[in-house]
Automatic annotation (TrEMBL):
The keyword Nucleotide-binding applies. Its main location: cytoplasm. Its cofactor is FAD. The gene is lpdA. It is found in: Cytoplasm. It comes from Halomonas urumqiensis. This is Dihydrolipoyl dehydrogenase. GO terms for cellular component: cytoplasm. FAD binds at K59, G123, D320, M326, L327, A328, H329.
Length: 480
């Protein structure tokens, strides 16, 4: 029997590595098991999907492609003569890879600094307090732990009509590795990942068609914000086709023919590349050995309570492999909560105040209820909105598209949700998260002094608009 630990974490993604570091900071002897092989050194790297092939690399490409579009089309309005601007795709990719390498290496450094033991290999829970790790050479070692945290993450969903074909039909990981700009790009799925990746390659010159099986666009976002977002993305060149259910695909040479049905019947489109972004599924197969009574549901998610305890008292599970939104920051907060609980502290997490962001341009961000959600729950609401077109800072930034919207309880004035489409929406949504965490009223935000000129003033004005008191736009309600 190998070393015994207070805590063993399986998975070093944003849930696992945070849980391991927090546990070590609290004085617990902690190990973290990871099997992800980096593409350069061919050795284990930390950070999981988020750092290696998800959040971070996609944002590097989104930022680079946005700056390219700005230089090519928008600088002239500001008096900047940039000439003939071109994009070196290979250099853009190399920068992305460098950022990933720096961050994954940084986690390894944090493990050392905090005393976390990094164990390379594939982890499996073989008992209530046992983890078997199979290393890269196939050797299995069993470790004991008083507590186990499963943070195995998720993987892209594949669908039968579009089997992966290297270089032609790819998932979100493959879409981060294109070496050139495809002329015709198909994207299956108009969710967060599909819209972000579609935006990257559209900005660089691809004709992008997004096929979405659902009839509604971004149903998790407030209706008014979703409608405006769809309009803005269409204006940028994304051809978003709703109610388009893919039925098959065929690779013909270096092209992909996609068949789908919509309201008009059978349709067919030909692409140079096809990205499949229809969601993700929990990576739990083989993580728990047969005979260990950790319960999974029919979709493969590990069943946990509100504090991420599984059906086995000493085993916890967090992140994408349990219920709730598949978001890196949700996983991280769960990791902190679980580490605190294991250390004997009282800890909980507010699942009603988890923000979401789509990093297109403009960004889309939201937290809490939509207006439609509130009405479905029978809650009478009042709302306030403010367009960035009326913001001085937005004009100065050449970023006047979008709006901020606040949903408040009509009786109590308590903030129920905030939804923003606009530049830096992902940064501004933190105000909504804080409002929900502290049970703020819309009046609390309206009485707050915001710096001028800032994009955040749109949130202030939206809060004022809840009672018809917005200063910088015509009010629909009379002052009381």
């Amino acid at each position: 029997m190998a070393d015994k630990f207070d805590v063993i974490v399986i998975g070093a993604g944003p849930g696992g590595y945070v849980a391991a570091i927090r546990a070590a900071q609290l004085g617990l002897k902690t190990a973290c098991v990871e099997k992800w092989i980096g593409k350069e050194e061919k050795k284990v790297v930390h950070g999981g999907t988020c750092l290696n092939v998800g959040c971070i690399p996609s944002k590097a490409l989104l930022e680079a492609s946005h700056k390219f579009v700005e230089a090519k089309h928008d600088f002239d309005d500001m008096g900047i003569q940039a000439g003939d601007v071109t994009m070196d795709v290979k250099k853009m990719m190399a920068r992305k890879d460098k950022i990933v390498k720096n961050l994954t290496g940084g986690i390894s450094g944090l493990f050392k600094a905090n005393g976390v033991t990094a164990i390379d290999g594939t982890g499996k829970v073989t008992g209530a307090k046992q983890v078997e790790v199979t290393d890269l050479d196939g050797k299995a070692t069993t470790y004991e732990a008083d507590n186990i945290v499963i943070a195995a993450g998720s993987v892209p969903v594949e669908i039968p009509p579009t089997p992966m074909t290297e270089g032609l039909i790819v998932d979100s990981t493959g879409a981060l590795e294109f070496e050139d700009v495809p002329k015709r790009l198909g994207v299956i799925g108009a969710g967060v990942i599909g819209l972000e990746l579609g935006s990257v390659w559209s900005r660089l010159g691809s004709d992008v068609t997004v096929l979405e099986a659902m009839d509604s666009f971004l149903p998790m976002v407030d209706g008014a914000i979703a409608k405006e977002t769809q309009k803005l993305l269409k204006k940028q060149g994304l051809d978003i086709q709703l109610g388009a259910r893919v039925t098959g695909s065929e690779v013909k040479g270096k092209e992909v023919v996609v068949k789908y049905t919509d309201a008009k019947g059978e349709q067919e489109l030909t692409f140079d590349r096809l990205i499949v972004c229809v969601g993700r599924k929990p990576y739990t197969k083989g993580v728990v050995a047969d005979g260990v009574s950790v319960e999974l549901d029919e979709r493969g998610f590990i069943h946990v309570d509100d504090q991420c305890r599984t059906s086995v008292p000493s085993v916890f599970a967090i992140g994408d492999c349990v219920r709730g939104p598949m978001l890196a920051h949700k996983a991280s907060e769960e990791g902190i909560m679980v580490a605190d609980i294991i250390a004997g502290h009282k800890a909980e997490m507010n699942y009603d105040a988890i923000p979401s962001v789509i990093y297109t341009f403009p960004e889309v961000a939201w937290v809490g209820l939509t207006e439609e959600d509130a009405k479905a729950k029978g809650i009478e609401v009042k709302t306030g909105s403010f367009p960035f077109a009326a913001s001085g800072r937005a004009m100065a930034n050449n970023a006047t598209e979008g709006q901020a919207k606040i949903i408040a309880d009509a009786e109590t004035d308590r903030v129920l949700g905030m939804h923003i489409v606009g530049q830096h929406a992902g940064e501004m949504i933190a105000q909504g998260v804080i409002a929900l965490e502290f049970g703020s009223s819309a009046e609390d935000l309206a009485l707050t002094c915001y710096a001028h000129p800032t994009m955040s003033e749109a949130v202030h004005e939206a809060a004022l608009a809840v009672e018809g008191h917005a200063i910088h736009m015509a009010n629909r309600k009379k002052r009381k």
